[in-house]
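BUG: 3D viewer hangs when loading the predicted structure for this chain

Environment: internal workstation, default settings.
Expected: structure renders.
Actual: progress bar stalls at 90%.

Input used:
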Amino acid sequence: MVRTCTLMNSFLKKMRPNYGSKNPIALLSRHYLQSLDSLRVFYFFLFYVSTRYLTLVWKDVSSSTSLSPPGIFFFFKYVDVTFFEAAIYLSPIITFICMLTPRHRALRIASIMMILIVFTYKNSFGRKLHGELLYLYIGIVYAFIPTWPKNPSLVNNKQKHYHLHLYWFGLLLFLFPYTLSGLWKLFWGMGWQLFFEEKSFLSIDSLSYIIKMYAQRIQTPPVLGDFLINNPALGWFLNIAGTYWEVIAILPLFKPRHWRLTAALILIFHLMSFYTLNIIFAYQFAIVPFFLLTVPLHKEAKNWGELVEDLPLLGGLYRLVRRSRISLL
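Structure tokens produced before the viewer hung:
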């Protein structure tokens, strides 16, 4: 924990000169104030999720004599169903109030508790709906942020640092699943290809093969399905590019010039998932890019070259090519 806080504190220190401010205290205050607006975006998303809960199918309640909550929430099976009904109706109200004024820790705790209760209910009928699980974790982290006064100038620098450390950790939880997904595809794909000699994402027709498999399960063919099946090389390039981006998705946490670009790439990534496989990640598409656009730790890049230089592998190749061109001149 101490090492994590040291890493985050070092990150914030590196961020200070990036905005051209000679006063680190003023910069810390600016980051703090902007993060408050960013938190409102997050709780707006929780409000959106809670309104979707109102459309739950109630036949699950009438046809089930008992609940089977997942894992550590087993004790909810002893709770009457009317308790869950009340939580479903209360969650939009509480999250809406929290969206308007997220400064109260009690409201943030109450909102995430409502989401947790309804999430448990949704997963108590043999279904495994993990769409909101990540945002539960992030909401729990943000519940630890202390209540701040109406006048932010009354918050001392130590409290601002603590606030920004938790805010930064929430951003890490947003992006880390993409990196884990990319690493899983990379190592599993390489192992499958090299040791078992079967198709993986390294195969030239990898995406075409996946699209064919999905086409057998779904009624509506993907928009780009036939095109990519007939052009496997393009599909392979998209697959490699998508996996590369997933692996480096946490880059903005350490290279703040990439926040805006990462928000755009998340939109493109999920759009391509829909157009190629008819898979839509509604929650990620709805909130992650827009939440990242409000991150106060962003630094504007002077040109595209600066963005490319920060990229692993590609950045080194870019610098090598640039030096070669300079030497030729």
